[in-house]
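A common beginner's mistake is to predict each chain separately and then try to dock the pieces by hand. The better habit, illustrated here, is to supply every component at once so that their relative placement is modeled jointly.
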Amino acid sequence: MDCQLDIFFLEAVVNGLLLAGLLALLALGLNLIFGVIDVVWICYAELVMVGMYGINYAYKGGMPFLVAALFGIVLVAIAGALLHFLVIRPVLETPPINQLLVTGGVLFLLQAAATMAFGIEFKNLGIRLGSLNIIDMSFSWSRILAFLFALAGMLALWLFLSRTFIGTAIRAISQDRQIMPLMGVDSRKLYLVTSAIGGGLAGLAAALMVLQYDIYPQIGLQFGPLIFMICVLGGLGNMIGGFVAAFIISQFIAVGSSCFHTEWGYAVAFLFFMVAIFIRPQGLFGSRT
Amino acid sequence: MTGLRLKPATIIGLLAVAALPLVVRYFLPASEKYYLHLLIQILLWSFIYTGWSLMGRFGLTSLGHGAFTGIGAYATVMLWNFAGITPWIGIPVAVALATVVGVLVGYPCFRFRIAGHYFALLTLALTEFVRLCIVGLRDFTGGSLGTQPRRYGDGISLYALQFEPDRMLAYYIAFGLWVLGLYVWLRVDGSMDRYALDAASQDEDAAASVGINVTRERLKITALSSAMCALGGAIFAQYQMYIGPDTIAGLGLSLNIVFAAIAGGIWVLLGPTVGAVFTQVLAETLRVVIQGSATLKGMFGSSALALDQLIYGLLLVLFIIYMPNGILGTTMAWWRRRAAARAATGRAGN
Amino acid sequence: MLELKGIDAGYAGFQALFGVSMRVDAGEAVAVIGSNGAGKTTLLRVVSGLLAPTAGTMTMQGTDLIATPPHKVIETGIAHVPESRRLFPRLSVEDNLRMGAFIPAARAKFHQRLEYVYALFPRLKERRTQLAGTMSGGEQQMCAIARALMSEPKLVLLDEPSMGLAPVIVSQVFDLVRRIRNDGYTVLIVEQNVRQVLKVVDRAYLLEVGRMKASGRAEELAASDEIRKAYMGL
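With all components supplied together, the output reads:
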């Protein structure tokens, strides 16, 4: 346990910031879907896993990385739309908790399918980007790029939501579902589009994660709970809240991990989360409804 | 004091389940250990699923019960391994600890009327927190590899509550636990609290307006439910003589509990039991099929074992879409409809 | 333009409209008056497709509205200003107007339509970036009407535009109705404020507990003793 305010502490803080970008991107996809469709995809992290495998095989099959990444984004976007069409739509009119649980079934399904198709071995693209060294601190380029691309992805989504008709409808629908037909909006189509966008964000996250992490079928269980925690802390469906919460949580993880052992970084983050929820159960930025 | 009258059918049913090991011994002597193991697993999980369904049936969909089973198992084993405290004391302590945790997490949720998705995700975070603590305390818990309770003598001991080598004994312990679970379920089902909780799950404001203390009622059922799951987890550890963060705690287990209970049916007494039979038999059958099939093994190697999870996941999706009342719930509803139809045609005939 | 024949409609276990027939011609302003619970809102919900009728026929310029999915009704030229305005409270005024122009035909003319409604309601232009939920009731009603006009409709349905507004504002709202009339829109308006509404429309129908009880020119109805007693408190 060596927790001093030295250069390594600063390194941990910066690494926390870099991690936050990725987590914010992941939380954004989930919040978008919840905001529009009122559904939590428990299998969200497993969709990221699907994207990671897709990119892995596309890259190893000879595609340049950028093409493989694009392939991954499209793949997960389609997966998201399919998930909505095949699994969510049939239970949309049933108690909300069924919608959450049904995606839990998909979680098992995807994990098992990945195990059978790809085996339990850890897979890696084998791309080494090196790292940026400043004084005694070292930051891997893969993390820096992930941070920048995550921010770019979020910016692109923000532009889409604020500048286009469909984006405006996506922001509007959670405010008044019943009158959407009066605007000429087909909610069913809008749900499908949103699911595809949410999937696309998961695909982008997958493309950024394959550069940093090994791929294995259970990887979703590693960071899935983290994403849910961030979303709840920021207020489910609140995209800005999720963004801020990602930065708070990732600082706990990064600093906690550098002071103690890695799991303790996560455990401290979860502990903070539960204390925060005890004080503000609707999330830091949520409004209770 | 029970207020429960045992019907002849109930007594026959209980006796039949009690006599199952003798049936196994008589007809399947060669693989007695294997079948008893299967039955013990079914009964232990039934108890845990029944414990979960106490909350689940009132709309409190917890994904945190993996935390309670984990606390029950780990606290008991840690106290025994490192402090030499007998499980006879360790288990009550572990159960009390899990109950306190359940109430602590439940209180803000119920107080501020957090339900549905929020409640599920909050309790999911609890599960993950407990798993991380287990892994983080690896010097004691063995981290992600898990650990074993220290064996006492030849493996059968009243003092250390170790009974695993004697499957018959283990069976009747599991049987006792299962009966206890059903008894608790019936007591809850017959209590006034049940009406209060039912009302609250349908309309919280209306329930509160007729003087129901929704928070207190929900805390009571949460305490009961978490205590049962902790007890189940502890006994499971004593039987398996192994505990690992993914076998007795963690998100995967939480989801398994929820799904098995839903697959069986959470609104009927034996629903969770049917869920346990269904999931355990499914997993075992698939395991046997895979091990007997050279094709499957050739195609997928050791990953073929994931096939049961694959089918399991698929069935869960189908269950929730097409059979949200579970196997037993749906069957019973069908049976009642048929009986009613018959009675109607009978009357028409007269 | 719009024609309803023998419409029955209702909610689970409760019928709200019984064989309602009515007609709105191009260029007209028509009111449906009646007391609270007479089925006026239900009638408009049926026309705009929010509620499917259980019997009857309904056409808009020859298009069968019953066979039209709810989100396609607006493309036949019907824009509905719903009861209590139903703006998107956490969207800006301009985003609300953008929602009004969601259909493909209107999207292409978005900027043109925007200029048109801003010219019609200059107040909205001042408030274009304000969140709709933070405006006063009268301004919200203005915004709701403007939102409906964004789709370049032929027929505007107005559901109780005066409801919940202060008396001073109510007369302003009826001025708005007069303005859009003069701009050439056909208007079907549902109101409890019988006295005021009869001053701005050409014809009116009287709906009582789900049935059409009377119809006629606005002046005739306003002069009828029965209506004056029952609905105008005279």
